[in-house]
Design the sequence.
């Protein structure tokens, strides 16, 4: 049985950034959606979790892709010197 940490370590660098960025943004977005949903209309608060969490997860994945790409590019530039 492998741990989550070892599975992340085995991933390529950009994929690791995408997974971590997407997951963390999805969790934060879901919590924000839950709070906003409970404030606005508690009967449909579960939908606000999805409504805010999914777009946040997508943005987190895009952000992770950009950051991971920059990290890989900087590593390639600095290793060629």
Sequence:
């Amino acid at each position: 049985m492998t741990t989550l940490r070892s599975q992340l370590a085995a991933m390529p660098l950009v994929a690791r950034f995408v997974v971590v960025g997407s997951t963390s943004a999805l969790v934060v977005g879901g919590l924000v959606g839950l709070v906003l949903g409970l404030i606005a209309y508690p009967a449909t608060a579960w939908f606000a979790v999805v409504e805010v969490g999914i777009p946040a997860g997508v943005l987190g994945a895009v952000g992770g892709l950009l950051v991971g790409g920059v990290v890989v590019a900087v590593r390639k530039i600095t290793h060629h010197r």
In short: The chain has one domain: 17-79. DSSP finds three helices and no strands in the chain. The longest helix spans residues 45-79.
